[in-house]
Structures are given as structure tokens and as C-alpha cells.
Amino acid sequence: MHKGKHQTIDGLPIVDSHERAPIHITKNDVRFGAKKSPGKCAAALAAKRDYHADEARVHLGRTYLRFGKKWVRYLTPISLKAEIISFDRGGTFSPGDYMLGKMPPAKTMGKRQSASEKRRKHPRKRRGPYHIFTGVRRKVERRFSV
Predict the structure, then answer these.
(1) 58-103 pLDDT tens trace
(2) Could you say which DSSP state residue 109 is in?
(3) How confident is the model at residue 144 (pLDDT cuts 50, 70, 90)?
(4) Which helix (H) or strand (E) covers residue 141, if one does?
(5) DSSP of 38-92, one letter per residue?
(6) Does the chain have fewer CB atoms within 10 Å around its N or its C terminus?
(7) 123 falls in which pLDDT band (50, 70, 90)?
């Protein structure tokens, strides 16, 4: 088994999450959240409150929650990533429920993925609830004639 380097944040170890974690972002989180700040954005405030974490840092790809002397790493969902991008660019942030993802085995720290593993097809797993974007342009149906 390949042993990778131990990753740390501020000298504290990072461990991968094994469970998904729902967070509820409120209007107050959005109002007091800071733009372009992984530790003070609306999502970080909500995650810190919901899980009584000592600190939270929400990045576009990963979310880190600190409990005591360790960080727990989650996948940032695409829906939350889109809201963060919009918010950081001066747009709005839609309050609501978002689901931080657990770290899949192929994404664990120190694991190297071979080319054959990347190509392998996996059966589609049933997904949980999804987030519906609000306050954006509506979808336009296109019809093509032959």
C-alpha cells in the first residue's frame, strides 16, 4: 500500500471524512459572510455553527472543519462551488441546504490513481437530494429542425 505524506493545516493533521455532512446556510450567514475568504464566507459560518467546529475553511474543491487538534476534509459540492463563485464575484449567495461530500477512496490523501483506474467504469450510485439554483436566468428550450 502506498503511504503518502501526511498533510497538515497550521501544523495540525488532516483526516478524510467518511460521511456526508449537510449544512444549512441562512440569510444571516450570507449577510455576515465575507467575500473571497475561505474561513469567513457564508458556508464557513454555517458549517462552523452546524457542527460546533472550532474553525471552518470552505474552498472551491474541498471543505475543512477543525475539531480540536485535527482537520476533517470534505468534498465541496458543485452547487456550493457555484454559489461561492457568484458571491466572490459580487453576486448573491442563495441560502439553503447543501451537502458536503465524503472523500471517496480514490481521492484519499497520498493515493495515486493509475491510468487503468481512471478509465474503469463504475455502476451509477443513487444520489441524495440536490440543490436547485434560484435567482439565475431561466433555461431556454432550443428546438432544431431537420
Answers:
(1) 998 899 999 999 999 999 999 999 999 999 888 889 999 999 999 8
(2) T
(3) very low
(4) none
(5) TTTSHHHHHHHHHHT-SEEEE-SSEEEEEETTEEEEEEPPHHHHHHHHHHHTT--
(6) C
(7) low
Q: Which residues pair with 57 in a beta bridge?
A: 64
Cα radius of gyration rounded to whole Å, the chain: 18
Where is 135: in which H helix or E strand?
none
Tell me the one-letter amino acid at 113. Answer: Q
Q: Are residues 41 and 33 in contact, defined by beta-carbon separation less than 8 angstroms? A: yes
Query: pTM (2 decimals)?
Result: 0.72
> 66 φ, ψ to 5°?
-100, 125
Note the pLDDT tens digit of each residue in 91-105.
Answer: 889 999 999 999 877
Question: d(Cα 99, Cα 130) in Å, to the nearest integer?
Answer: 8
Which residues lie below 8 Å from residue 47, measured CB to CB, with a gap of 6+? 21, 23, 53, 56, 58, 63, 65, 100
Query: Do 74 and 65 form a contact (C-beta atoms < 8 A)?
Result: yes
